[in-house]
Amino acid sequence: MDTIEKRIEEILMDEDDSIDYKNEKHLIDDRLLDSFGIISLVSDLEEEFDVKINAVDMVPENFNSIEGMASMIKKLQDN
Amino acid sequence: MGYNTLPYLFIFLPLSLIVYQLSPRRYRRYVLLAFSLTYFFMWSRQLIIYLLLTAAGVWGIGLLIERSGDRKGLRRLFATTGIGGLFAILLYLKYTNFFIRIIDQASGASLPEVRILAPIGVSFYTLEAVGYLLEVYWGRINADRSLFSVTLFLSFFPQTMEGPIARYQDTASQLNAGNPVSEQQIFDGMCRIIWGMIKKLVIADRLSIVVNELYHNHAAYDGIMIPIAAVSYAVQLYMEFSGVMDIVIGSAGMFGIRLPENFRQPFFSQSASEFWRRWHITLGVWLKTYVFYPVTTSEMTMRWNRFARKKFGRYITKIGTSFLALTPVWLFNGLWHGGAFNYIFYGLYYLALLMLEVILEPVKKAFYKKTGFDKNGRAFTLIRILRTWLIIFTGELFFRAEGFMAGLSMFISGFTNIGISRLFDGSLLGLGLDKADWFAVIAGTIVVFIADILKEKQIDLKAYLAKRNVVIRFGAYYALIFGLIIFGAYGAGYRPVDLIYAGF
Question: Into how many domains does chain A fold?
Fold first, then answer.
């Protein structure tokens, strides 16, 4: 089975394949991912991992990197 | 006693610094609070009761939310009551007459308008208070146990009139720390304040004369004078608001308190959305954090996403979601500036532009892919910046106009009787400024523009100067001070110009 990280990368590549997501650790701070990008991403992640992302989760560290997103999703799945 | 006045700069601020520094560390926050409440009282007199009520209410409700623990319903009830109460007060203070006018127009009645006095900065501290309650509700911060601390967070005197709209977690601990004042902080703060004063006194206050004339007697102007009106106001507003922010951030910096920046070279934006990430940043961040994201992650949006993805595909879904999330953001942005139709139009104008950005995104991508053009090339970057200027200037024309219909009439008359020759035939000298004034405005704007270019290129002028020898360094500082003294708009014929954003 694919790891959470791998599946997140695929979702991100679907949206914009010009970014090196594996090595990029500042997607939000460097504005590679903007509010509009986040809109699609949130619903993609919710659907793919069957979790509910809330406004409280919308902080840069949860979306700056694949690892950040994976750790947020694991936390949401555990709850 | 606005931030640009001598009593503030030469009495209130130095006195507060001295008392603060001389007080024992643990009492310094009370010194800040005492000066802040005094400042507020000097502006708003008995209306300070609104601020005190807000502070007490927010403090109490914050604690109640926290003590509700895991009882989600109860937490939500307290948060909704608190936020509802805050907005109810704001609506009453700022929008009662707007609603009366709407009722009058809709029903033909003639209800008399009521005289309601609002305390200074109510639009700013209310947003901070709402943000605080939401952060506690979300569990991102602990409720503050100290009423003094919450009151200081909402009333810190440099921020009272025009923000920046701070988040509790960004400033509260600094305000309470009571850190000592250092020579370097005073020096840095003074430099920043002088820079802000130059923007305000040399450029903005002069342009305010032109702007008042063009907008107040707008029926007398057409053609090229309308773009002049639009550009003049956009430049005035930038110099004024960012200049006051320099004074505010410089003042707070003297106490070692770092406030969030409100501007980041907005005229280098390449799109409307980027402009709002660089202009009045703290309002944009507030709207994103407390309106945009809650709507984006709401049940309603989730349901739309599930439904639309299967039915219409990703593209249409994203357009729909963007519309759902951006509409409240921009209606709020427009209305927050005041109850008037031109502000609502201003909000809807940016809503339409941002929706266009979302809709045209695939077209844009396809264009660059197909043509192979480098979208980051100089020519395209410049075109995008100039296009954004057009967007900004048009928006500000409606924003400043004395009513929506006046804005529309000005916009339309800009296309008749263009008369470019009026730029050179002395017409500009009939707007209240003589040649020397125009020179000061244009030269000052160029200086600020160059400073913005350097900042955009991340060249730190202050650090650069600090490394130069003493003659160059002090030459530059004295040039700033004398520039302010010689070219500042004061003396006979000039009256101090009120702060624009303090009116919102």
Answer: 1
